[in-house]
Write a sequence for this structure.
């Protein structure tokens, strides 16, 4: 048995348990991943990009693209206690969430530090789908202590989900026979016949533009893909990966774990995590609710106001202020914060950033010290920043119902 | 719907003490007790016609300050200065009897070592003593009061002098076995000396980090850990507590259980608004103080949905399994124990430290020990009125008996265990079997059913370093106040833990009044 080929044929993969899992759309996505630019997300093989980051970004903004959300964590939470259990867990009032509606939520530990954000889909009177970036089954189980009539089901691999984003996204749906989805308002959910089954469409996304998320049983995944790409051929449809998503979400002002916030349950250093108030998500925190996890701690912070605040910045020049520090003076002597995400935004034509800044310093001058490289030579630039309150990117079409046909 | 200032849940000694102190301070207090009579685990109940016994039947830890604060003397409580002896019994060695710092029946070397050993422990115990009557500082708190509490302890330990201080740090977290092995040779003596370090807990002689501290805690106070039977027995003690409560104006409602601590929610948040009783009656109050164990209080009566997620899961994980069963025998006559003139005081039936350890080994895995170990006493020697004239009660704390028995608790298992224990006793007191008129075995499971204490744990939750001091029952509820406004704790699950000391009840009252 000295021939390694024989060994290989007869031996099971010794790394089988270590291999990345493949998404329900993998077969199609792999064929289009011309650069083999794979990274991973929650144990799934996941494209960083497929062909070219900028190209994919421009598809999101000018035509449409698909983003694989199979690795996103999904949990079915059902039963007479489901609403009460989730409502106690998240900072928002879920009693206001109607059936076939989606809401964006955050949840915190007892100290009001944010564990994660995500979306909750109300699929029935007592049936909810929670989606989030990182696994949170353990937290859900802890949250369910004392709620006897609730079942929590890990559902990540039981659904094939694809995000379809961009101005032509509805046109693609229409041309594949899903014109009825045109009546969906932002955060609406619709169910439509598809192939031998059904597709659930939610008007949700992570790009700040017109877009939908499509949900099918795994056995319909490839059929969904093929229908989309047949219908989208003339509408510039293109798969996009993590890199382009990160650009689009920053323009929309959406936060990313491990960019804007450190998940509280995984934070070691004291208060290196954040509260929703610090992340400018105060609108998600409903103090009128008598109780939700972290309420007491958040109320304390609310009374005095957070000391630091996630802020949108417009920065002079065109050099992205990635990982830059912020100062209240041009000489960069008095540090007042740090940039969490930054980019030159082609759509907005501005040098934009999200930054965590001392609230006291917000009324004064804000400067940043940018390091950049030009053909191996390092340069430093001090640039003036101005605070922006509205999202960098938020076109009217993102909200128009029925959506315009582009 | 009725209304009062304060509702106390549970009429054990801590609930009664807390209620009385608050009523004396002018609050309108109602105490609700599920049992038909007051006293909790110290409540004497008739287990055979004419025979009365309680789970806890002696006192040693009730501070004089509590006795005085409640004027218990005015209500008929007479603590005895005549403390009970502790006797190590063995089938292989002659009995060794301990009384304070004196010893009789031991070998020469052990006799010589004993006084010094006791005195050293007494010095350590006195240094720690002030801690038991104080509210623990909050973790991370930097207030003057909090710093002074730590400072006081530090000073007390420093005042021991360098040699004693170093020795204190060395022995404080030793396993009981290591400590007594250093000083003694007699097997049954060593087992008996381990007893008060491990009794009522999930500890055995080899368990590190807690046994010696438990012993030092028990040795604190006026009686220095020596047990006594109050005049008139536990009945007189509980009656005095009830009388003091009534005199202070406390409304006592027995035979009524609280089914829910009601929480009212508004835009201002949540607060405790009263209780719901088993007859669906709602009683509103400004505050509710629970002497029930923390798991019952938070998980059953409040409900985790009103609590924070991490907090409620910390409560869920508290270790609260009791391992002491109580055996009561109604005897037609006084039994004769080999080698003893009178079976007075506490008799420790543990031939060696290994016997104790092996008994614990079995119980950890949900099994009954092959040879249980026992602390036996005959309360009728000091309180003859608890049994018909000339007849006696034998009362035994039996370790380690798991509440969650692998094979399950059935009548057959109970009867078999009772017969085994009586047979074991017959070895020490030949002929006792023939004197048994009736018996009662209370397993930890029975204690849970009959007294409503989670896991049947004497101390509500295990008194171990991670569940003591500012961690008892857990941080954010360790200063008697809880995360729910208007809800407080005052039971053995709060600092400084169990046995009949009344400290949690007194400390809670002081904290609420401050």
């Amino acid at each position: 048995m000295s021939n390694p080929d024989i060994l290989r044929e007869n031996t099971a993969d010794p790394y089988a348990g270590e291999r990345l899992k493949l998404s329900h759309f993998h077969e199609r996505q792999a064929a289009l991943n011309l650069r083999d630019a794979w990274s991973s997300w929650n144990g799934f093989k996941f494209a960083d990009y497929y062909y070219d980051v900028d190209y994919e970004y421009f598809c999101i903004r000018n035509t449409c693209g698909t983003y694989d959300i199979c690795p996103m964590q999904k949990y079915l939470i059902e039963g007479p206690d489901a609403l009460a259990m989730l409502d106690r867990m998240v900072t928002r009032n879920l009693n206001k969430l109607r059936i076939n509606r989606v809401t964006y939520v955050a949840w915190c530990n007892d100290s009001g530090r944010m564990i994660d954000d995500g979306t909750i889909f109300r699929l029935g009177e007592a049936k909810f789908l929670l989606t989030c970036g990182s696994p949170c089954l353990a937290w859900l189980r802890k949250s369910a202590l004392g709620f006897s009539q609730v079942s929590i089901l890990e559902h990540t691999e039981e659904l094939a989900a694809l995000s379809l984003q961009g101005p032509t996204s509805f046109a693609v749906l229409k041309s594949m026979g899903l014109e009825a989805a045109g009546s969906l308002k932002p955060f609406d959910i619709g169910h439509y016949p598809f192939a031998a089954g059904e597709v659930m469409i939610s008007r949700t996304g992570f790009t700040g533009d017109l877009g939908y998320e499509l949900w099918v049983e795994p056995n319909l995944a490839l059929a969904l893909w093929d229908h989309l790409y047949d219908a989208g051929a003339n509408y510039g449809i293109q798969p996009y990966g993590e890199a382009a998503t990160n650009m689009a979400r920053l323009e929309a002002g959406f936060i990313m774990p491990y960019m804007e916030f450190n998940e509280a349950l995984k934070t070691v250093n004291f208060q290196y995590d954040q509260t929703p108030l610090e992340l400018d998500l105060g609108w998600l925190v409903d103090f009128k609710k008598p109780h939700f996890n972290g309420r007491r701690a958040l109320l304390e912070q609310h009374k005095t106001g957070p000391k630091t605040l996630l802020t949108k910045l417009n920065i002079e020049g065109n050099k992205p202020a990635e990982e830059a520090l912020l100062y209240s003076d041009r000489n960069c002597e008095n540090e007042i914060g740090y940039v969490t995400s930054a980019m030159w935004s082609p759509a907005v034509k501005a040098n934009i950033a999200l930054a965590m800044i001392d609230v006291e310093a917000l009324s004064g001058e804000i400067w940043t010290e940018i390091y950049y490289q030009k053909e191996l030579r390092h340069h430093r630039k001090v640039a003036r920043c101005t605070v922006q309150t509205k999202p960098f990117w938020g076109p009217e079409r993102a909200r128009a119902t029925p959506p315009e046909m582009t | 719907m009725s209304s009062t200032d304060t509702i106390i849940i549970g009429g054990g000694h801590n609930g009664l003490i807390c209620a009385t102190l608050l009523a004396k301070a002018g609050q309108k207090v109602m105490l609700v007790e599920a049992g038909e009579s007051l006293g909790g685990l110290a409540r004497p109940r008739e287990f055979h016609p004419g025979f009365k016994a309680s789970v806890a039947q002696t006192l040693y830890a009730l501070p004089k300050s509590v006795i005085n604060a409640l004027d218990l003397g005015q209500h008929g409580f007479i603590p005895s200065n005549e403390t009970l002896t502790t006797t190590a019994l063995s089938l292989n060695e002659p009995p060794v009897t301990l009384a304070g710092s004196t010893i009789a029946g031991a070998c020469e070397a052990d006799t010589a070592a004993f006084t010094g050993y006791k005195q050293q422990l007494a010095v350590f115990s006195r240094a720690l003593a002030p801690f038991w009557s104080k509210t623990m500082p909050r973790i991370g708190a930097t207030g003057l009061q909090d710093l002074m509490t730590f400072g006081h302890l530090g000073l007390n330990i420093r005042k021991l002098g360098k040699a004693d201080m170093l020795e204190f740090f060395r022995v404080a977290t030793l396993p009981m076995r290591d400590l007594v092995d250093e000083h003694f040779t007699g097997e049954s003596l060593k087992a008996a000396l381990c007893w008060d370090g491990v009794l009522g807990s999930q500890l055995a002689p080899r368990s590190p980090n807690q046994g010696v501290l438990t012993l030092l805690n028990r040795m604190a106070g006026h009686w220095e850990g020596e047990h006594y039977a109050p005049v008139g027995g536990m009945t007189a003690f509980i009656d005095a507590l009830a009388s003091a409560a009534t005199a202070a104006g406390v409304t006592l409602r027995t035979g009524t259980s609280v089914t829910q601590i009601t929480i009212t929610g508004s835009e201002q948040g949540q607060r405790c608004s009263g209780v719901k009783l088993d007859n669906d009656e709602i009683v509103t109050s400004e505050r509710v103080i629970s002497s029930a164990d923390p798991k019952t209080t938070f998980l059953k009566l409040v409900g985790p949905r009103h609590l924070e997620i991490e907090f409620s899961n910390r409560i869920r994980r508290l270790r609260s399994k009791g391992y002491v069963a109580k055996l009561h025998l109604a005897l037609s006559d006084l039994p004769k124990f080999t080698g003893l003139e009178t079976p007075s005081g506490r008799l420790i039936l543990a031939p060696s430290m290994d016997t104790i350890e092996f008994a614990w080994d079995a119980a950890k895995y949900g099994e009954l020990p092959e040879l249980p170990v026992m602390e036996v006493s005959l309360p009728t020697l000091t309180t003859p009125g608890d049994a018909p004239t000339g007849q006696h009660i034998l009362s035994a704390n039996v370790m380690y008996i798991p509440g969650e028995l692998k094979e399950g608790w059935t009548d057959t298992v109970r009867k078999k265990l009772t017969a085994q224990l009586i047979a074991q006793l017959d070895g020490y007191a030949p002929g006792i079997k023939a004197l048994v008129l009736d018996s009662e075995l209370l397993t930890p499971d029975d204690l849970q059913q009959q007294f409503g204490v989670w896991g049947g744990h004497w101390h509500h939750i295990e008194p171990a370093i991670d569940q003591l001091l500012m961690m008892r029952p857990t941080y954010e509820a360790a200063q008697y106040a809880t995360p729910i406004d208007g809800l407080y704790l005052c039971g053995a699950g709060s600092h400084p833990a169990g046995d009949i000391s009344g400290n949690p009840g007194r400390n809670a009252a002081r904290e609420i009044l401050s």
About this structure: Residues 42 and 250 of chain B are 20 Å apart (CA to CA). The longest helix of chain B spans residues 108-128. DSSP finds 16 helices and 17 strands in chain B.
